[in-house]
Design brief:
This protein is mainly α. The chain is built from 18 helices and two strands.
Length: 482
């Protein structure tokens, strides 16, 4: 199996040192992008006080970053094909770093929102282009090991974010939340230019501008609706109208893309069984487990009375488990295969979500830590399995489009997951002045509901066949006659 195409001008044979460093480069970029989405949450009261605005106004600072990601992720594949992975990835790190510097220097809320949009523009390119570079550098048989390593920072960063944000606000200054990215970004820029392979298409197709407007507007509007979902800033008819408009725009893109040879996103890739199962399975699974980073701190702090730092430490075992699973995962997928792993693992995750609903005021800390450890291990297995299955049957010329679609759907599923958790909590927790017992019971019911939703999502993976993903997992090695 050839790893490059004749039509592709690339550094086809990166050095051994570059291949060793490449997963680290991509992992650090993923860590920066993932950390930035959570570290700011803890500092919202301090930043709002410093800028002289109400804490609710800080929602625009958080939402602007998400909206920027939603708009710019879809064009990442085209950018990489047109300008090369090295230039685009370096530009992404540069924009993200520059945006971080300007955010730290911002003196008012409006400037901070504008700089967050710039930051999001860079962050939108880092994840899909980083994945694309890995897929084109490593053979499919090595992709599982590489992706499992790179996925760890994306799991660890959301757990470290609240702790890091609390420590920075408590002992330094809120501006250091943004300044933290600057030395990492500068080091990353230097290493990218030295070691990142430069893959590009010699004859790239024109950018689908109409598709970008339709899809970008629809996704951005949908992300905005999900960000404000559950708040009382807009009436129900207003939210329904915005939701309907976003569906119309996305539907318009679907009809538009059907008539083009080179649309913004190649929706025909959904005819590939493994791609369809991986992307749609990732989306529906995250509806259940995507809200856990929102619900567990709420349970620990509001329900059980732990401090923010104690709450952060209680989810740290998830990170340790994710790193432990990295060593077990390749062998597990080789023996069981993607279909068996994803069906059984999604079922286990649903049951673990319901197990979190047993945590109460009298639950020993060691039990909470043990549950967090197992949840982190199975979450790591789930995400890496889905992320690698995406590319199992994707041809070389479609890797950039596949990466863009997978990253776009992943970003949307994160927003949907948090919205689903917020809706479940709002439904089960009776009012804003609930006592501790009512709060715990409400969060328990929300966790049980999301656990059931996760179990139901196993249906998506039943479309997979036994041999799907063998090129990635090397499962066929165990069946020499097949």
């Amino acid at each position: 199996m050839e790893n490059t195409m004749a039509s592709q001008s690339a550094v086809a044979n990166p050095s051994a040192a570059s291949k060793r460093l490449l997963p680290w480069l991509v992992a650090v970029a993923f860590f920066m992008e993932s950390l930035d989405t959570t570290i700011l949450n803890t500092a919202v009261p301090a930043i709002s006080a410093a800028l002289g605005v109400a804490p609710l106004s800080m929602k625009a600072v958080l939402a602007s970053y998400t909206l920027s990601l939603a708009v710019f992720i879809p064009i990442s594949g085209w950018m990489a094909d047109r300008f090369g992975t090295r230039r685009v990835f370096a530009s992404a790190i540069g924009l993200f770093t520059l945006g971080s510097l300007l955010c730290g220097l911002s003196g008012n809320i409006h400037l901070l929102v504008a700089c967050r949009i710039l930051q999001g523009c860079g962050g939108a390119m880092m994840v899909p282009v980083g994945r694309l570079t890995l897929v084109r550098t490593f053979a499919k048989a090595d992709l599982l090991r590489t992706m499992s390593f790179v996925s760890i920072p994306a799991l660890v960063a959301p757990m470290l974010g609240p702790i890091a944000g609390g420590l920075i606000v408590g002992y330094l200054h809120w501006r250091f939340i943004f300044f933290l990215n600057i030395p990492i970004g500068i080091a990353g820029l230097i290493l990218v230019y030295i070691h990142l392979p430069d893959y590009r298409e010699e004859q790239s197709h024109p950018l689908d501008v109409v598709g970008l407007i339709l899809f970008g507007s629809g996704v951005a509007l949908l992300s905005y609706v999900l960000e404000i979902f559950g708040e009382h800033t807009l009436s129900a008819p207003d939210i329904s109208g915005l939701l309907a408009l976003s569906v119309i725009l996305l539907g318009g893109y679907w009809f538009h893309a059907k008539s083009l040879a080179f649309p913004l996103l190649q929706l025909k890739l959904f005819t590939i069984r493994t791609f369809r199962a991986a992307v749609s399975g990732s989306f529906f699974t995250r509806l259940g487990i995507g809200g856990v980073p929102f619900l567990l701190p709420l349970l620990y702090q509001v329900g059980l009375g732990f401090t923010p730092i104690e709450s952060g430490l209680l989810v740290m075992p998830q990170a340790i488990a994710a790193m432990t699973m990295k060593t077990i995962m390749p062998g597990l997928l080789r023996r069981v295969g993607y279909r068996g792993v994803l069906i059984s693992n999604t079922l286990v995750l649903g049951l673990l979500l319901m197990a979190f609903a047993t945590i109460g005021l009298r639950t020993p800390v060691w039990v909470i830590i043990l549950q967090a450890f197992f949840y982190g291990a199975f979450t790591s297995l789930q995400y890496t399995s889905m992320n690698t299955l995406v590319y199992a049957d994707i041809s070389e010329q479609n890797t950039s489009s596949a990466s863009s679609i997978a990253s776009t759907m992943q970003q949307m599923s994160i927003s949907f997951g948090v919205a689903a958790a917020g809706l479940a909590t709002a439904f089960f927790v009776p009012g804003t002045h609930s006592n501790r017992t009512e709060m715990i019971e409400g969060i328990h019911k929300a966790l049980i509901s999301l656990g059931i939703l996760t179990i139901v999502s196993t249906i998506v993976f039943h479309s997979l066949k036994t041999g799907d993903g063998d090129d990635v997992s090397q499962h066929k090695v165990l069946h020499p006659g097949g």
